[in-house]
Amino acid sequence: MTKIKTLIIDDEPKALAILENKINRFCPNLDIVGMTQNPTEVIDLIKSLQPDLIFLDIAMPEINGFQVLKAIEDPNFEIIFATAFDSYAIEAIKHCAIGYLVKPIDNEDLVEAVNNAILNIEEKTALQKNKQLIENLGAQTFQDKKIVIPSQEGLEFVKIADIIHLEGDNGYTKIHFINRKCILSSHSIGHFNKLLESKSFYLIHKSHLINLSYIQKYLNDGYVVMEQNFRLPVSRNRRQEFLQNLKG
User: Fold this and answer.
1) Residue spans of beta strands (DSSP E) within 42-180
2) Contact yes or no for 127/76 (Cβ under 8 A)
3) What are the E-state strand segments in 62-135?
4) Which among 68, 64, 65, 105 has a CA at the least distance from the CA of 84?
5) Domains and CATH numbers, the chain
6) pTM of this structure
7) Hey, how many other C-beta atoms are within 10 angstroms of the C-beta on 4?
8) In contact, 37 and 63? CB cutoff 8 Å
9) Taking CA atoms, which of 34, 132, 204, 235 is between 20 and 30 Å from 50?
């Protein structure tokens, strides 16, 4: 197999050395073609080295990892972001199905992220996902953002505000929309519950995750009626908390 040309960007010399060592030990498919502590050099390095994969630290002085990405005209390379725990950054990255590692980097997490990146490189989806991340970073609200959903036909980029509810189905998830037919994703309902964790989505049942914006009514027998007349059950053990959530 052709080795994956890899560039590492981190402003901390120690973090750079540790990641280089881990890649050399655990990721034989990667070929480190460049490393830098200076994020302002990145654009020139990308142009000259044409990497397939970039490890990019988010929290850097002068210009952070997201700003680096925005500064590149056609970011058609796979990215694995590295970050100390930052819930905003991780949420943004996860919505676009882009890889990330939380510092200090765990060896198994590194191998998993690299394996996923290699699959993504073969599918040539990086440019779409990177551009979607940039668009999401400029979104004013959670509902204005899009998420990336792998489906039977490829990757779907769907606006969160268009989702009425998600329905778990034998490990798969049916996603129902306000303005188009539903799609089936190979991800579980649990995956989407983590992805859409916010005040605007609620897991009312182990198989039903709803967008609270589309509730029409709550029925005393423990059902909600959603837009397009979806009638969905609320689990007994979630009803009290759900009602409190609705009341704010």
Assistant:
1) 53-57, 78-83, 99-102, 146-151, 154-159, 163-169, 172-177
2) yes
3) 78-83, 99-102
4) 105
5) 4-137 (3.40.50.2300), 142-247 (2.40.50.1020)
6) 0.85
7) 19
8) no
9) 132
